[in-house]
Amino acid sequence: MIVKSPVRRPRTNPLTTTVDLSDPNAPLIRVGGELAYATSAPLRVEVDRLLADAPPTVVLDFADLHFIDSTGLAVIVYAWREGRQVGTAIRLRAVPRFLASILDITGVAGLLARPLPQARPTQALPTQALPQARPGDQRPAASA
Known about the structure:
Layout: E1 16-20, E2 28-35, H1 41-51, E3 57-68, H2 70-86, E4 89-93, H3 97-106, H4 108-113
Parallel strand pairs: 2-3, 3-4
Antiparallel strand pairs: 1-2
């Protein structure tokens, strides 16, 4: 006699994203469900759309996240990297324990904690001419 086990279908929670623009200095993307290879594209699109305006901060809220894979993690790193290019900090909010562990183990938490690079001046500051040394002038000795 052959007994077939019941077919188990994986429980899937499609990705949900909602954007809150009520604070233009820190737009918020709420991320829920599963952030995985098959579902990550909409989050990346929203990140790109918000970073196009180069706000000081973009907040990613993961309160309703149930699962993340390496592609989902790559989207977080992508947001951080692209944000640095335009001077936008990426902040995570309501991070579930499983995601906090993944971010810590992979080193992504350390990346996200890095300060933004200082803005480059758009115009060179004028330089002052240094006084010319005259014969007989003494210079202080270099200290070791």
